[in-house]
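Risk register update: the risk that structure generation would not scale has been downgraded. Supporting records follow, first protein first.
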Amino acid sequence: MNRNTFLALVIAMAVLSPQVTDANAQDKVERRQPKPEVRYELGADSLKNNDVPQGRLEGPHLFHSDIIENTVRQYWVFVPAQYDKDKPANVLVFQDGARTMNPNGVIRAQNVLENLIAKKQIPVTVGIFITPGQRGDAFPDSIGFGNPNNRDREYDVLDDKYARFIVEEMLPEVGKKYNLSKDRADRAIGGSSSGGICAFTVAWQKPEEFRNVISFIGSFTNIHGGHVYPDLVLEAEKKDIRIFLQDGVNDLRRPDNLERDWHIQNQKMVAAFEEKGYDMAYVFGEGGHSDDHGGAMLPLMLRWVWRDHPDVEDKTDGDKLVAMAKAMKPKVTDPFPGFDASAEVDPSGVYEWSGRMGRTRMASTLKVKNDGGKITGTLETERDGEVTTADIMNPTLEGNKLGFDIEREFNNREMKITYQGIVHGDKIVGWQSFNFRGQDRDRGWEAKKAK
């Protein structure tokens, strides 16, 4: 039997195999398993270093835009210790500002600027980290590091409104206090996911204002028409834009709808830039839809976009910087560390956790009962003041690994969510897995036993 015939037989057997729902036949329940976790670790240039001159991070400040009507947003300003009011500073604008400056996150742009400036590997640069807008007059604290509700309308559209907001409102606002360069070569703009396409749109719409673009896992997809960018790049006269793109082969994939396939669309962007002869670099790693690879690369990306700046003393060839970025290797971890098929645990109890589904914050309570090896339970979810309760389906207990399914309605559509986790004392730690708009998604899950 050749390999193709064997694979076809395996697939056919998997499709035709019945789904067993008896809790006592736990080993026969078939579930999609989360992918091994691929994480790129931050290097020294992204970590806080108390031995270099210390800058300051100001904010959060609130800003109400006149151009993007009826919105309010937060922003932070990083001012390096080397800032001189008599000399215009370079500027780095980064979208999703709360995630960008999160001191425990995977970008930590303020640390990167502080360290690279101290080593004279980039010019003295003021960082401006801006959240998307929240519709209305107030910016709720509950948003945290999540997405304000106007994000897609600002980031994923291709018009010039957000570019005008940056150039006509935000830069002048920060410029009231700090001397910012107006030279396009001294300005860089970056972002992740929808923030990545947004950064490119700003430079595309205003190339006379921004030359340098940094994109992590850019959403050049059909959220609000971004899938047309490769064709626009090919059809338009070449613009003087310098761009560094990062993506992962395990980014959000849609083989049934390539306009919604993040990795395919990033590949098409690279091909278009190459065809037109843009000053472009790219790195495709092994990760998924996460900031961590781009965050780990950010020091090299900033050095690359400003590699020929006259104020850079420690210069490195651009090709070498790209090679250094491509040489980064991720840490791949088992999605269920600590799994023991021979362990005997009793998951009975009440467990609680909170999180987000889209823009909606939810609080969940899981009640589990183990009656002689038969697992039953309910999941209660509070969302926007409404409480729903559902029985857990297809419960399994394999050693110390608990699994079950839940069906619930979200945005007027039925969703099946699979929960799988390792029972660790008073916690269950694992994953939520579901399919959203044709894409398989995995999210970390940690439930703690109620006291």
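Supporting record for the second protein:
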Amino acid sequence: MRTSFTKYFYLYISTFLISLFVSVPSAEAAPPDFNGGVHNEYEYEEYVFLSGAPVKFSGKMTVTERERNDQLTKTYRFTLTNSNGSKLSRSIVYVTDLEKRTDKGQTTTQTAVKSYSEKITMGKVTYTLDDYQLSQGAIIDNRPASDYYSGNVVGRKTYKTNTDEIITIHFSGRNVGYENFWGATETQFIDYEIVSNQGKAFITSKVSDSKTKVLKYEPHDPSLSSFTGGHALISSQNMIGEYSYDIPYGSGTGTVHVNQEMVPVIERLIVPKFRDLNGHWAKDNIERLYSLGVFDESSRFFSPNTPMNRYQFTVGVLKSADIRVLEQPKNQRAPKKAIFADLDPKDPDYLYIESAYHKGVSKGVSATKFMPEGPLTRAQAVAILVRALGLENRAPTPGYQTGYADNNSIPKWAKDSVYVATEIGLVYGDGRNRFNPYQEMTRAEASAMIIRFLNFLEKDLQQNYRDDMLFFQ
């Protein structure tokens, strides 16, 4: 998913007839309409408020996209109807200029309207879009395991009716979102003011599009079989939206909702057959990671209680989050020099280590050594995970306490990561509230920590970017 798509995003939402646009990654979750609407594979629906009442339209939507020289052109077309015979047709083209700051790991976007055409007929009144002005800016923070983004938009739409009435809609809004291999969510808020001969009306749209991937165990019931069950990777997507309106000259105040779901996509994964995991507390964690290809063990024995080394853990984190790796130049014949003297560039997983180094996820034990076979400590593991998430800067100003009894034993280079990892639930202390930064981790313990890391990417971010934003604001 994330590895094969370009990183920018579109915020495009509006209530009823307002068209917004903000660039997002192509594999992102983003409400793909201009009216606070939602859709599935077959149908799109939205509410329109120009007549003074909430009128639900549904029908077909198409989106086309073209990119050239850091400029993205996106075209939306809608053909919608209402049960009372009302009709809506809309075609709008947006152009987004992107500025990629690779030195900062960030991308900024600026969006404008290139062309527009919109006509709505309700009863005997026809509303034609006569002018459309929009200014939008967005920022994407490109982190190794997940991108985080935010945008703001302001604009004005002017409609002319067949009775020569002018209706103006002023709008402003914002969006927040993230996107990674395990999930993507965008939540958008837009406030609209409709100005007409009848007075003023106010509409607020809240809409969220969310994608998730989950691992589900599927039992294999026949007793005469070579395996007892395996995991499936299930990708789901759903959209939820809410319009709150205050129309003094029409329907008064109220709220209407829209929601749609996609049909889940199911992918069956390889079946692990380790013989030394029965009854082990980390069996499910290990088998999940093996099914995903995070562990590529050829032996039938995983040895869960043996030490996890630095090389295996770093590679495992990048594989589990589907973090992009550097590519070897096709015309390069001789093996290139390794970034650390104790690494072999011919190793099949070497590029994961080099990518982790250049992305700031993992560092060597010195300027020349990575110590790939060295044991992994809890401090090292936590630092790798938090750097991958890009959240190390969320720690307080230096001088804070982590809350652990052995706070003073935590190395300075790991302290921010330990604080953040504790706050987001990746790690916790032992029975005596000690973090034990230098404790060497077993393969089982490391597996459990990676699974918590994946749960954060899948569930915790969705909770924060959708549920917390929609239901607690």
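The chain has two domains: 2-266, 270-460. On this basis the risk owner (M.S.) recommends closing the item.
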